[in-house]
Amino acid sequence: MENLALIESFSEFKDDKQIDRVTLMAILEEVFRNALKKKYGSDDNFDIIVNPDKGDLEIWRNRVVVADGDVMDPNEEISLSEARKIEDDFEVGEDVSEEVKLIQLGRRSILALRQNLISKIYEHDNTIIYKQFKELEGDMYTAEVHHIRHRAVILLDDDGNEIIMPKDKQIPSDFFRKGDNVRGIIESVELKGNKPSIIMSRANPLFLERLFESEIPEVFDGLITVKKVVRIPGEKAKVAVDSYDDRIDPVGACVGMKGSRIHGIVRELGNENIDVINYTTNLTLFITRALSPAKVTSVKINEETKRAEVILRPEEVSKAIGRGGHNIRLAGQLTGYEIDVLREGAEEDVELTEFSDEIEGWIIDEFKKIGLDTAKSVLDYDFKDLVSRTDLEEETIQEVISILKEEFED
Questions:
Q1: How many whole angstroms separate alpha carbon 310 and alpha carbon 299?
Q2: Of 186, 201, 275, 266, nearest to 234 (Cα)?
Q3: Closest CA to 371 of 335, 328, 333
Q4: Is residue 148 part of a domain?
């Protein structure tokens, strides 16, 4: 058959892309019909026979025999004398089927046809990949590091599909080398042009939830439910778990003896500190548990403003807030309530608003954002943590501390 290179191209893609026979036939027929339309103006009277297994293809043009000189449409009609060159017994009104050789389409048309074929197969392949990964959104996936860029890591899976993990989707402590196998979740899949863009994430809270499912049998089996996960990637996470079976301790099952079960998850996340909390619909108790490891004295909830005032002994305040404010921030995200920390014996303390004549209001608000609304709460707080948790300069914080100290020295 003419233009063997075209058919060989078809065979190569058939083997490489593993496209099913029916789809290949449809792609080939579409490509050739487009070429016929351009050449003859219409493809309605053409039959295309594709044999993907053998890698060959036949095109037949069907025309009606008309008397010499009566041909109105050369694509659909053929003169009697021309018909009898094919077979000498044709008569007017009969149908003639004549094979169209690829060479008749012209060299340019054949080259264009080949490019169109390649394009259509790639387009089909990309659509299949897009659909495949779209169904995997939110699922755990493993791929190999292929290339490391400044703003992203490029990974390839076993089928050679490219997966991108941007810098902000990585755990800050992540360090990769070419050839490393990396686990994450398929966070999003989009079609950009005709090419699927597959984004992997290790920073998404869902990644931690999937790790619980893969590492803890009771979670995988549904005996324990992960109710909610909140994270500061690489730093700290809180996971609320529940069980409908009273015989199962969900926290104990997730942590394991001496932390044996959760250790692998912590290691996967770059030693991220994970608090596993027993979920409850009792909001007061849930907030108390969420502030672990701090021991809460009492909780006052305002459901309208979604705020909770938590009273703690002075020595428990720093535990509740945590290094860099991570603990109280995650507790708020987990419970859905803004948490204000107050110390026991606050009557002996002084509200920060009492110093509004010496300290500007926006500075007082900065301290309130991290749960510090009294003079003693600021004075008892670690200076470095004040610097890291607020948007205040060191000199400003030092000045505030001096003002507050004077109050108690007096």
A1: 5
A2: 266
A3: 328
A4: yes
CA 32 to chain CA mean position, Å: 38
Give the pLDDT score at 230.
97
Contact 168, 203 (CB under 8 A): yes
The secondary structure of the chain, three-state, reads CCCHHHHHHHHHHHHHHCCCHHHHHHHHHHHHHHHHHHHHCCCCCEEEEEECCCCEEEEEEEEEEECCCCCCCCCCEEEHHHHHHHCCCCCCCCEEEEECCHHHHCHHHHHHHHHHHHHHHHHHHHHHHHHHHHCCCCCEEEEEEEEECCCEEEEECCCCCEEEEEHHHCCCCCCCCCCCEEEEEEEEEEEECCEEEEEEECCCHHHHHHHHHHHCHHHHCCCEEEEEEEEECCCEEEEEEEECCCCCCHHHHHHCHHHHHHHHHHHHCCCCEEEEEECCCCHHHHHHHHCCCCCEEEEEEECCCCEEEEEECHHHHHHHHCHHHHHHHHHHHHHCCEEEEEECCHHHCCEHHHHCCCCCHHHHHHHHHCCCCEHHHHHCCCHHHHHHHCCCCHHHHHHHHHHHHHHHHC
**What is the spatial distance between Cα 147 and Cα 149, in angstroms, rounded to a whole number?**
6
Domain shared by 209 and 94, yes or no: no
Positions in the chain short of pLDDT 70: 1-25, 51-56, 103-114, 118, 120-121, 345-348, 409-410
Domain residues for the domain of 182 are 136-203
Are 325 and 370 within 8 A, CB to CB?
yes
Number of domains in the chain: 3
Whether 30 and 75 map to the same domain: the answer is yes
**For the whole prediction, is pTM greater than 0.90?**
no
> Hey, what are 103's tokens?
């060479």
Provide the token pair at 169: 């989707």
| Nearest by Cα to 78 from 67, 89, 87 | 67
Amino acid 151: pLDDT = 92
Is the CA virtual torsion 193, 198, 201, 207 positive or negative?
Answer: positive
Tokens of 359: 């300290």
In a domain, 272, yes or no: yes
| Percentage with pLDDT > 90 across the chain | 42
CB atoms within 10 A of CB 97: 12
- Which tokens sit at 379? 């004075």
